[in-house]
Design a protein that fits this description.
Elements (H helix, E strand, L loop, with lengths): L1 E4 L2 E5 H6 L5 H10 L4 E3 L8 E3 L5 H11 L2 H12 L6 H9 L11 H22 L1 H8 L6 H10 L14 H14 L19 H12 L8 H15 L8 H9 L1 H9 L1 H8 L15 E15 L5 E13 L5 E7 L4 H15 L5 E4 L5 H6 L2 H5 L2 E4 L9 H12 L23 H6 L7 H17 L9 H7 L10 H7 L2 E2 L4 E2 L5 E5 L2 E6 L10 H7 L3 E7 L2 E11 L2 E10 L12 H31 L28 H8 L3 H14 L8
Parallel strand pairs: 5-8, 8-9
Antiparallel strand pairs: 1-2, 2-4, 3-4, 5-6, 6-7, 10-14, 11-14, 12-13, 13-16, 14-15, 15-16
Helix pairs in contact: 5-6, 6-7, 8-9, 10-11, 10-13, 13-14, 24-26
């Protein structure tokens, strides 16, 4: 009922009302008239307080028989509090203590409670050891020592001494004896910090975590999880749970594990990953950002039935972080490596310099550019940002302002991205549909976008008061390397991300949905190099090419020392399959390739047989006949093998046979591959 507030003895209003000492109406009346002094207003879980001394006598007379006289209680504790002294070693011990359950430190509330208990027990020890002190604190007649001590410490100011010691003297004495024997550690309750998760075994915790994280089936609520857990516990022998508290406590402990699985990794990343605060560069070409996004203009086009349709497209932009100048861009349906390549190419041509650093996401065609070392050649440092992390990409903030300030002026603006909530960022779809035939064509839309970019670059930068393009042109970066013509040639050859495998058809890779075929030809440009092809079937190679001119590609082999140039290839020659459309050149090509294939098959067979004869393992040497090559030979002439032949062949190696026959093949056989 009593409580000290700002060192003033107060009475809890709720306790007085509950004990029929005062009615709510009477209390409000006296408070409003100033007859009693309210020290604290009530709020959630905090009772209202009135000053004890301000209460009329009639109320005090009702309170004292129930709760005692607070003034006398205060006087009783005065002598005892003189012996409540600071104990630095106990304070340090409690602050450094680690709980056995989870290895965590005690909470501040727990430290205050155990520290108050310790200094109370220290004071009791002084009273027991010093007769004079005991008389001073308890009076000359200290009969019933522990009863008196229990009464005194129960009346201590709970704000100053939140000890929570037993009020019954016997329990108090027992706890004190344990303290004397074991020290401050005896004060710490065995369940301190125990959130009841110790009821859960390792297997139970794994089951709870997996079930709550959710897979194909989602557990809607903790209440349902409790029911499912207890059912599982009956089957496995786990301890059953009576309430949801244990589950709540455990799920809170491992929230960082299940949050992403239950709510999505993006939500989890926003909640748990640390955000670094950064400052933007102070000079041009120090940092370029690049990203692909929706080009927020509608345009009209004609479908296959010649009906007018509404379309949208995408754009890839490269921006200078210092000035926010849009340096390079490319408009295309998808964010592929060609769009990125051409946007960077425009940016570098406009700048004339290599930037010190470029930052890009890891989506779309970036992997192809990265694998080809294109991004590493552009800048000293090439850094990936995390996808769907707008905070790490200044370009998204700048592009958002670009859309709102300049693109939105056009009536055919599509509105902001799908996550935009503001009604001002939405398109007027009714107007768009009513003017479908007045929308710009694709070419007109591209021109409008170009004009918007120029307006943005020539507009005032919010931080400097001068135009963005002026900021860029007037700035100088000593560490940005100028580019010459040879640098440009070297830069814009890139390597594809995936290696390609050689097949009997040459090599094939996809550029988007389009398949592209290449073959290695001899010097005449039309004769396929079948010997190289045979030796490299199933081998994988890295392709390097110029996206602006794909008439020539280079093949590289990955070695421990790095990439090694192998050969060049040109687009594969295609001929008409149907006789009706075949030209004389087509027919000659077909016949020549068929003949070359026949010769290559014979050549491969003869090489292998020569090796087998050296080893004494040919079919003829073992009384058998070698089969003829189907479709090429009608029969095979038997060779007479003599002892001299064995002796002669035993002095050569398989490698010498292969090298000799390869040389013969190159000099003679390939001369007549084609008609």
């Amino acid at each position: 009922m009593f409580e000290k507030y700002n060192n003033i003895i107060c009475v809890q209003v709720g306790s007085m009302i509950d004990n029929n000492i005062i009615s709510k109406t009477n209390y409000d009346y006296l408070k409003n008239k100033g007859k009693i002094v309210q020290m604290r207003r009530s709020c959630y879980a905090v009772p209202a307080l009135v000053e004890w001394d301000s209460l009329p006598k009639r109320f005090k007379e009702k309170i004292i028989p129930i709760a005692g006289d607070p003034r006398k209680k205060e006087q009783k504790t005065v002598g005892f509090t003189d012996y409540l002294q600071h104990d630095e070693s106990t304070k340090t011990f409690l602050k450094e203590y680690l709980k056995q359950q989870d290895g965590k430190h005690l909470t501040e509330l727990a430290i205050d409670k155990y520290y108050a208990q310790a200094i109370v027990f220290n004071a009791i020890t002084k009273l027991i050891e010093n007769h004079t002190a005991r008389q001073k604190a308890l009076g000359k007649r200290d009969t019933g020592f522990w009863k008196n001590i229990a009464a005194i410490i129960s009346d201590l100011d709970s704000d100053l001494y939140p000890h929570n010691l037993p009020k019954h003297y016997r329990r108090l004495k027992t706890k004190y004896s344990k303290y004397i024997q074991q020290g401050a550690e005896s004060l710490i309750h065995g369940g301190t910090g125990n959130t009841n998760t110790t009821k859960l075994t390792g297997d139970a915790k794994i089951w709870i975590l997996d079930t709550w994280a959710g897979g194909a089936v989602i557990m809607p609520s903790v209440a349902m999880l409790l029911s499912a857990y207890n059912e599982k516990a009956n089957q496995t022998g786990w301890k059953s749970l009576k309430s949801e508290v244990t589950l709540h406590n455990y799920l809170d402990e491992v929230k960082h594990l299940w949050h992403g699985a239950r709510y999505g990794e993006k939500k989890s990343k926003e909640k748990y990953t640390y955000h670094i605060s950064t400052q933007l560069p102070s000079m041009r070409d120090s940092l370029w950002y690049s990203d692909g996004t929706k080009l927020n203009f509608y345009y009209q086009y004609q479908d296959k039935d010649n009906k007018t349709q509404i379309g949208t497209t995408s754009v890839y932009e490269v921006i200078d972080a210092y000035s926010e100048v849009l340096l390079g861009y490319h408009i295309s349906k998808t964010e592929n490596y060609e769009a990125q390549f051409l946007a960077y190419k425009m940016a570098i041509q406009r700048s004339g310099n290599r930037p010190y650093q470029i930052t890009y996401d890891n989506q779309g065609g970036h992997k192809k550019l990265e694998n080809g070392n294109f991004l590493g050649k552009i800048a000293r440092i090439a850094v990936k940002t995390q996808p769907y992390n707008g905070k790490s990409k200044t370009i998204e903030s700048a592009f958002g302002r670009f859309q709102k300030q300049f693109m939105k002026k056009r009536w055919f603006y599509t509105g902001g991205n799908i996550t935009t909530k503001s009604i001002e960022s939405r398109a007027n779809i009714e107007k768009i549909l009513a003017n479908k035939h007045n929308l710009p064509t694709y070419e007109e839309m591209c021109e409008e976008y170009r004009l918007c970019r120029e307006e943005w670059n020539e507009s005032i930068h919010y931080n400097t008061g001068i135009s963005r393009i002026e900021m860029y042109n007037n700035s100088k970066n000593e560490e940005a390397q100028p580019l010459n013509l040879l640098d440009m040639v070297d830069l814009f050859w890139i390597e594809r991300q995936k290696q390609v495998t050689v097949t009997p058809s040459g090599i094939m890779f996809k550029d988007g949905k389009e398949k592209k075929y290449y073959m290695k030809y001899l010097q005449d440009g039309i004769t396929p190099d079948l010997q190289w092809l045979n030796k490299n079937i199933d081998n994988k190679f890295i392709i390097k090419l110029d996206p602006a001119d794909e008439s020539l590609i280079y093949l590289y082999k990955q070695t421990q020392q790095g990439k090694e140039f192998v050969t060049e290839m040109t687009p594969k020659i295609f001929v008409h399959r149907g006789k009706q459309e075949q030209t004389a050149e087509d027919l000659a090509h077909i016949n020549a390739v068929m003949e070359a294939n026949r010769q290559q098959r014979v050549f491969n067979r003869d090489q292998m047989e020569a090796i087998q004869e050296v080893q004494g393992n040919s079919l003829e040497q073992n009384g058998l006949n070698s089969p003829a090559i189907a479709g090429i030979e009608t029969g095979k002439k038997k060779r007479k093998v003599t002892p001299d032949t064995y002796k002669k062949q035993s002095n050569i190696t398989e490698l010498e046979i292969v090298e000799a026959e390869s040389e013969e093949y190159n000099e003679a056989d390939t001369r007549n591959l084609y008609m």
